[in-house]
Amino acid sequence: MTLHSNQTEATISFTRRIFSAFLAFTCFAIAPLIFVYPLALVFADPLLTVRAPAEKADVIVVLGGDGPARAAWAATLWLQGIAPRVLVSGRGDCSSIRQNMMEGGVDADAITVECQSTTTWENAVFSEPILDRMKPLRAVLVTSWFHSRRAIACFKAFTPSVDWISVPVGPTKAYYALVFDPNGIQILKEYPKTIGYELRLLVRSLMQSASLSRPWFEATT
Which of 25, 106, 199, 202 lies in the 20 to 30 Å Cα band around 151? Predict the structure, then answer.
């Protein structure tokens, strides 16, 4: 009985230590997020958003994702006469965005769709040849407000000949309300995505510069 009791007590003690260690680890892991998450939402607008007044342009480019809201805003801009043409980019909801815009009053003939891209990077890459055929001098980019900095950076990099204006869909809720909204997590995830894209675009720019300078270097060696 004594040996059995000692073994039971040892097992209970070990279990308690494991549970205590798990609780401590969880607290240390979660505690920073409790403070970081609200701050990320509060500073999302100045850090993640690029917003400018809508100006006359040649085309409105709408990115897939938050389809209904982006479609409604792009339709509003088209009806205001901001641009005569629309390009919808993004696999998954390109057709539904087109349909929503048509129901919102946009002429079907004014809308072109690109339905292959699955990322913001691909939005810019796959839209580039379409825009090259359209030959716009100025374009308005429509996406969600917290996605606008990353999106406009990509399009400026891949179509530098176009004067890009970011006119995103604005926030529909107060920042404190986003804490319990699904978009709150999307906003938090946008920070590392934006940093990653900035680094990726920097590497791309450096590689392009090296490629342009290579003939001169080879000629002098």
Answer: 106
Across residues 109-114, what is the average pLDDT?
A: 97
Residues 80-116 as b/e (b if ≥16 CB within 10 A, e otherwise) read eebbebbbbbbbebbeebbebbeeeebeeebbbbbee
Residue type, position 166, single letter:
S
H or E stretch covering 59: strand 59-63
Residue 113 is encoded by which pair of tokens? 């769709």
Give the CA distances from residue 8 to residues 14, 20, 21, in Å, rounded to whole numbers and listed in that order.
10, 18, 20
Q: What is the pLDDT of residues 153-168, one digit of tens each?
A: 999 999 999 999 999 9
Superfamily of domain 49-169: HUPs (3.40.50.620)
Residue 72: name the closest of 58, 84, 59, 86 by CA: 86
